[in-house]
Amino acid sequence: MNLQLLLIQVFNGLVNGAFYALLSLGLAVIFGMLRIVNFMHGALYMLGAFVAFALGQTLGLGFWPSLILAPLIVGAFGVLLERTLLRRLYGLDHSYNLLLTFGLTLLLQDLVKQEMLSQFAVSSAPYTAPASLAGVVNLGFVVFPKYRLFVIAVSAVICLITWFVIEKTRVGSVIRAATENPVVTRAFGINVSAWITGVFGVGVALAGLAGVLAAPIYSVEPYMGAELIITTFAVVVIGGMGSILGSVVVGFAVGVLAAIGAALYPPIANTLVFILMALVLLVRPNGLFGLPEGAR
């Protein structure tokens, strides 16, 4: 492999890694703060793409308004789910919310499929990137599509902001306190229930944002998140369940490694992340950045 081809693969990997990072970040926020195994995260990623597409088809909204509105709509949907369904399962075994979110995934996929067929007469549809991000950028050592560079940049900035808020601000301190010791936190007059709902909504909105960013690269279709969520769970496990930094770093790293591995030896492309996960767990059962349960 020559140097230019290697660099192209690295940038392609960073694009995939951008989606892994955003999705695994949302999963890490939800699991790390709330201990909820949210199996429907891939379906919420798909919902973000579908909402952006539907806003364009029905209201004529372009990419930029949809980039803001679609994650907010998906986040609001997540808040509704937490308030009406998931809240009833707190304190129970993780398998209960895993089964619930798996069932909701199947329901959401079928609903979107029926909606696309009945309202738009398509089973999958392209989504056009804004004209301002069309074309390519000459980086000197490689020529790369402008929109894909935008995806990498947005993902990195959002991940950095999320990490900073949770780890370095008073808001993050309240979130951690509300989820780790709700009884004591309530004693200080803090509405723990509202904070938990807000955290879940933010985690879901991150999945919706990833879906909107992915829509111009991949076609919008009901099962676009089905395979991606398996890899995303592997990323979260490698980084350490609940580790914000681990999810971001490993998300980008897995994207790059998978892209290079696919170029060098294509048959290994779909299994490389799981081989990496097995090797990491043999050495560090809590993941690269994870802490033992008692240390959290």
UniProtKB/TrEMBL annotation:
What GO terms describe the biological role, i.e. biological process, of this protein? amino acid transport
Enumerate the GO terms in the molecular function aspect.
transmembrane transporter activity
GO-annotated cellular components: plasma membrane
Tell me what topology the record assigns in the membrane: Multi-pass membrane protein
The alphabetized UniProt keywords are: Amino-acid transport, Cell membrane, Membrane, Transmembrane, Transmembrane helix, Transport
**Residue ranges of the TM segments:** 6-29, 36-55, 61-82, 94-112, 149-166, 192-216, 228-258, 264-283
**Superkingdom assignment:** Bacteria
Q: Which InterPro entries match?
A: ABC_transp_permease, BCAA_transport_permease
Annotated localization: Cell membrane
The family database entries (PANTHER family) matched by this protein are listed as: ABC TRANSPORTER ATP-BINDING PROTEIN, BRANCHED-CHAIN AMINO ACID TRANSPORT SYSTEM PERMEASE PROTEIN LIVH
Q: Which family does it belong to?
A: Belongs to the binding-protein-dependent transport system permease family. LivHM subfamily.
- What is the name of this protein? Branched-chain amino acid ABC transporter permease
Q: Tell me which species this is from.
A: Deinococcus irradiatisoli
